[in-house]
Each structure stands twice: as C-alpha cells, then as structure tokens.
Amino acid sequence: MKKVLSLLLVAGMASIVACGPSAEEKAAAEKAIQDSIANVEQMRADSIAAVEMAAQEAAAAAQKMVADSIAAAEAAAASKKGTKPKPKSKEEKKIEETKKVTSGRG
User: Fold this and answer.
1) Burial letters for 79-96: b for 16+ Cβ neighbours within 10 Å, e otherwise?
2) pTM of this structure
3) What is the C-alpha separation between 4 and 106, in angstroms, rounded?
4) What is the pLDDT of residues 60-106, one digit of tens each?
5) How far is CA 20 from the centre of its chain?
6) Phi, psi dihedral angles at 85 (to 5 degrees)
7) What CA–CA distance (Å, rounded) separates 88 from 85?
8) 75 vs 73: CA distance, rounded Å
9) Spatial contact of 21 and 29, defined as CB atoms under 8 Å apart
10) Burial level of 33, CB count in 10 A (0-12/13-18/19+)?
11) d(CA 32, CA 26)
C-alpha cells in the first residue's frame, strides 16, 4: 500500500510541475511587457517634448527681456539728448554777474 501511495504522490507532483503556463498565458504576459515598454517610451518622448518647449519659452522670454532693456536704454538716451539747459533770462545773467563781482571783493 505504501508503494502505491508514494507512486501516486510522485505522479501527482510530476503532473503539477509539468503543467506550466499555457501558450495564451505566455502571449498575454509578453503583450503586457510590450505594452509597458511602449508606455515608458511614450512617457519619455512626452518628457523630452515638455523640456524642449520649456527651453523655447525661456529663450523667447530672454530675448524679450533683452529687447525691452535695449528699448529702455534707447529711450533713456533719447530723453537725455532732448533736454537742454534752459536759457537764462537777462535778469538772471545780471544777478550772476553781480554775484561774481561781489564775491571777488571779499
């Protein structure tokens, strides 16, 4: 009886070990792996596109800042060129001459 029982036990273990995943299960596992790889590649491409777009926006902002700085500098230079000292009236000239003469007597 022990021999029959041990023979059945060995046969049962062999049948369990011999039964692996079916072809459909193997195909499903392979498809899941391929889908995961495709998702990772898509996320990588999206990430690279986002970085490139951010770099372009930063470059455009920098160019705008430079253009604004140049325009402000030109406006400041133009406003300095346009302002001349106000010509003095005859009375102001006489007062200055008087101050020069009186300050020299000291």
Assistant:
1) eeeeeeeeeeeeeeeeee
2) 0.47
3) 141
4) 999 999 999 999 988 888 777 656 667 777 888 788 888 777 765 54
5) 50
6) -65, 145
7) 9
8) 5
9) yes
10) exposed
11) 10
Condensed to tens digits (0 to 9), the pLDDT of residues 61-70 reads 999 999 999 9
HEC assignment per residue over the chain? CHHHHHHHHHHHHHHHHHCCCCHHHHHHHHHHHHHHHHHHHHHHHHHHHHHHHHHHHHHHHHHHHHHHHHHHHHHHHHHHHHCCCCCCCHHHHHHHHHHHHHHHHC
The type of residue at 33 is I
Two structure tokens written together for 20: 């692996």
CA angle 84, 86, 87 (to 5 degrees): 115
